[in-house]
Amino acid sequence: MKLNPKEYAHMVSRASPPSPAVRDCLWAFFVGGGICLVGEGLRQFFLYWYDASLAGTLTSIGLILLSAIFTTLGWYQKLAAKAGAGTLVPITGFANSVVSPAIEFKAEGWVTGVGAKIFGIAGPVIAYGTAASALWGLLYWLQGKVG
Amino acid sequence: MNYLWAFVVGGLICVVGQLLIDYTSLSPARILTGYVVGGVILSAAGLYKPLVDLAGAGASVPLLGFGHLLAQGVRQAVDQCGLPGIFTGGLTAASGGIAASLLFALLAALVGKSRDQN
Amino acid sequence: MIRRKDTVLFDKPPVIAAWAAAGGKKESEGPLAAGFDFLTEDAAFPEEACANWEQAESFLQQKAVEICLRKAGISRKEVDLALAGDLQAQCTASNYTMRALEIPFAGLYGACSTMAESLCLGASLTAGGVAHQLLAMTSSHFCAAERQFRTPLDYGAKRTPTAQWTATAAGACLLRGAGQKGVPVLSVTFGRVQDYEVHDINNMGAAMMPAAVSTLLRYFGATGTAPSDFDVIFTGDLGEVGSALLQEQMAREGLPLPNHRDCGCLLYDVASQNVQAGGSGPGCSAAVLCTHILPALQKGQYRRVLFMATGALMSQTTFLQGESIPGIAHCVELAGEGTV
Fold first, then answer.
1. How far apart are CA C80 and CA C132, in angstroms?
2. Do residues C124 and C237 make contact, with C-beta atoms less than 8 angstroms apart?
3. For chain B, which end, N or C, has fewer CB atoms within 10 Å of the first or last residue's CB respectively?
4. Does residue C197 sit in the same domain as residue C320?
5. Closest CA to B5 of B52, B54, B78, B74
C-alpha cells in the first residue's frame, strides 16, 4: 500500500466527521444547567430546615436518588446519548457510573459482580480526589507550621 | 437570581466538559477524574468558594464541587485535629454522596435489569 | 486447488448449500429485515430462559444453525465439522452453542472478520475432502459486546460520530463439496495483519481499512483480475469512515472501486437508525452475507462478487496498554449459482 502511518493519520483525520460541537455544547449547557437548577431547588428547600452544609449534602443525596431512579428505568442512558457532558459532569453522572455497573454485573454475582464492579468507573474519581485533597491537606498543615 | 446563576454556571461547567470531549481524545473517565482533582486545586487556591457563594448548586453539583467538598473537608479537619485531618477530612465531607450512591446502587441492582439500547 | 501467492483457487469449487441469518430489533428495523430467517423484538430472550446477554447471543446462534440445517435438509448429526467464532472473550457464545449441538467443532477468533475467516477455512477443508458437510458461522450481540468491552448498558455516554454499532445478529452457512447445488466459492484469500498505528477505539473502520487494501491488492495481483470483473465488492464493517478511506486509497493505487459496498452501511439505515458510522461485529457481515449477498447470487442477480470481512484484532488489555489496533481482512470470491 502506497502509504505510511503518518500520512494515513492525516487521511483518517480528514475522513472522520468531527463531533457537532455547537449542538453538543447546547445540549450539555441546557441539560447540565437544568440538573443544577433542580439541585438549586432542592438546596433552597433543604435550607428552610438545615444549615448550608447539611442542605448541600442532602441536595447531593436527592440528585443521586433521582439519578439512580432514572438509570434503573433506562432513561439516564437515553438522555446522556444526547446531553454528553451535561449528564456526565454533574453528581448525577457520578451516581449513574455507580448504579449502572451495579445493575449490569448482577449476572456475575452479588459479591464478585455487583460489589466488585460497583466502583469500576467511579473508583478513579474517589481515589484521585482523595489523594489530591490529602496532598492539599499536607500543604495546608505545613503552611500552618511554617506560617 | 440564585436560580439563574445556578443554571448558567452549572451549564457552563458542563460545556467545558463537552469541549474537552469533542476536541481532545480524553475519555469520559479521565475527564471526571480531572474535574475532581481540578476542584481540589481550585478550592485550595481559594477560587472555588466565591463561585459556590454566587451560584450555589450550579457550582456544587458538577464534579468540580465534589473536589471542592473534599478539599474543604480536609482543611476543616486539619484546623480541628492537625495532621490526622488529611486522612479523615476529605471522605468525611464526601461521605453522604458516596454512601448514597452505593446504597441506591445496591437497591437499583435489586430491582433493576440490564436492558438493550434499541 | 491451486495456490497463487496468498490466494487459493478452487478448480472444483465447493458450494455454500444453505444459509440462515438471525437478528435483533434494530436489525429488524433495517433495510435488510426482509432477508432474515429469524428476528426478535427482545434479544434478551427471557421466555427462552436466557439468564444473561452471553446466553442470549448463544441462543441467537443456535437459531441460525437450526434454520440453516433445516434449509439444508440435514440433521446436526450429519455435520462433519463446525467452524465458529464470535466477539465474546474466549469465544464463549460459540462454545456454548456447540455444547448444545454436539458437532465436531473448531473455534475461531477473527473479530469482525470471522465470517470470512470461517468461509476461507471451511471452503479449503471442504474442497480438500476433509469435511463433506461443514458449518461456518458467527455472531455478535450488541449487549454482550458493550458490557464486556465498553461500559454497562445503562451507563450514560455519548457516541462519537466515527463509532460503529455492534450488530445483534448471527449467520450460519453450510458448505458442501464441488458439484452440489449451491453458491460456488471460487477462491479464498487469507489476509495478513496490517497496523497503521490507529489508536482510536472509536474509529475501527479506519484501523481496519489498510488490511482491506492489502488483501484486495494481493488478490487482484495474484489472480490478474480487476475491480470491474465483479458485480459488487463487499467489505465487512468498515463503516462510512473506513469505506470512504478505502475508496480513496484504492483510487490512489490505480484500482478505483465504484462497485464497493460495505456491510456496516447495508445492515442499517445509517442516516436514521442512530448507529453513527454504521454496523460492526462479526454478526454484521454474516447477516449481510446471509440476507443479501447469498440470496442475490442464488437468484442470479449477481454473477461474481468478492466478500471480504475485516477485523480489528486488539483486546481491551492491549488497548489500555497503549498498543495500536492491528487489522486483518479475509476475502472470499463467490459466483452466482449455476454459473460454474
1. 7
2. no
3. N
4. yes
5. B54
Cell of B60: 456544587
* Selection from B65, B72, B69, B32 nearest residue B51 by Cα: B65
Number of H-type helices and E-type strands within chain B: 6, 0
Contact by Cβ (8 Å): C214, C238: no
Smallest Cβ distance to B118: which of C26, C53, C157?
A: C26
Amino acid of residue C166: T
Asked whether the beta carbons of residue C253 and residue A18 sit closer than 8 angstroms, the reply is: no
Same domain assignment for residues C220 and C157: no
Q: Does residue C91 sit within a domain?
A: yes
Question: Per residue in A6-56, pLDDT tens?
Answer: 999 999 999 999 999 999 999 999 999 999 999 999 999 999 999 999 999
* CATH of residue C61: 3.40.47.40
Alpha-carbon separation of residue C82 from A18, C125, C134, C168 (angstroms): 43, 11, 6, 21
Residues on chain A touching B36 (C-beta within 8 angstroms) = 125, 128-129, 132
**C191 shares a domain with C154:** no
Using the predicted structure, report yes or no on whether residue C331 has a pLDDT greater than 90: yes
DSSP code for C15:
E
Model pLDDT for residues C231-287, shown as the tens digit of each residue: 999 999 999 999 999 999 999 999 999 999 999 999 999 999 999 999 999 999 999
* ipTM, interface predicted TM-score of the complex: 0.96
Residue C252's domain comprises: 184-335
Please give the pLDDT value at position C49. Answer: 87
pLDDT in tens, B25-74: 889 899 999 999 999 999 999 999 999 999 999 999 999 999 999 999 99
Tell me the C-alpha distance between C114 and C329, whole Å: 9
Helix, strand or coil, per DSSP, at residue C40:
coil
Please judge whether C210 and A107 are an interchain contact, meaning their C-beta atoms are less than 8 angstroms apart: no
Statement to judge: residues C18 and C150 lie in one domain: yes
Partner-chain contact A57 B97, CB within 8 Å: yes
